[in-house]
UniProtKB/TrEMBL annotation:
InterPro entries: CheY-like_superfamily, EvgA-like, NreC/VraR/RcsB-like_REC, Sig_transdc_resp-reg_C-effctor, Sig_transdc_resp-reg_receiver, Tscrpt_reg_LuxR_C. This is Two-component transcriptional response regulator, LuxR family. Keywords: DNA-binding, Phosphoprotein. GO terms for biological process: phosphorelay signal transduction system; regulation of DNA-templated transcription. The lineage of its organism: unclassified sequences, metagenomes, ecological metagenomes.
């Protein structure tokens, strides 16, 4: 009999998951939890769960810190993240941290069943949105290769400090440059990246893998 832990703070979602499990071609024993504290307590008391279905955002921890705690406490148990988020970056980070799947709550029952079967057989469920995201990242990497020669070593140093939130004065102090020289570098960086402010520059630099 499969031991499955459901972690979601919405009763309707837990009931919906149970209805999907009832269609599953396996007998199971279900444990329900509503916050990260209960999840961690359960995996400590019952380390032999066969599967954990985990809502990414529940009371107790902020965003990915809760997932990290669960993955650390249940090293041998596959975890599938269930989330209202359809942000590919959230999907990617969940998989990178060690989750065996990410299923948006908007997915159909058939998709959830397929994900359960795949993960229980030792696979990893990757949502379709993530494939598109990966392709976009590949394009961004290609753009990075084209852009990198146009940015000087000093501009890269300035850009890295911009991304860390340092002011022109702080950057000048760190690099031994006058504030006017730093301002010149910043303006040149904005033009190269086609951005209007420091926040956009930091985001664009990370997207293009310039840091």
């Amino acid at each position: 009999m499969l031991k499955i832990l459901i972690a979601d703070d919405h009763a309707l979602m837990r009931e919906g998951i149970q209805m999907v499990l009832d269609r599953f071609d396996k007998k199971y024993q279900l444990t329900n939890t509503t916050n990260y504290e209960e999840v961690l307590q359960q995996i400590n008391e019952t380390p032999d769960f066969d599967l954990i279905l985990l809502d990414l955002n529940m009371p107790g921890y902020k965003h990915f810190s809760g997932l990290e705690q669960v993955l650390s406490g249940a090293e041998k148990t596959p975890v599938i993240v269930l989330s209202a988020s359809e942000n590919p970056a959230d999907m990617q980070q969940s998989i990178d941290l060690g989750a065996k799947g990410f299923v948006p709550k908007s997915a159909s029952n058939e998709v959830l069943v397929a994900a359960l079967e795949l993960v229980l057989s030792g696979g990893i469920y990757i949502p379709p949105q993530l494939f598109n995201y990966s392709r976009n990242n590949e394009n961004a990497t290609q753009n990075s290769a084209a852009l990198q020669p146009a940015i000087t070593r000093r501009q890269k140093e300035v850009l890295a400090l911009i991304a860390q939130g340092e002011s022109n004065k702080e950057i000048g102090r760190t690099l031994g440059l006058s504030e006017g020289t730093v301002r010149t570098h910043v303006n040149a960086i904005f033009k190269l990246l086609n951005v209007n402010n420091r926040t956009q520059a930091g985001v664009k630099a990370r997207t293009l893998d310039l840091l």
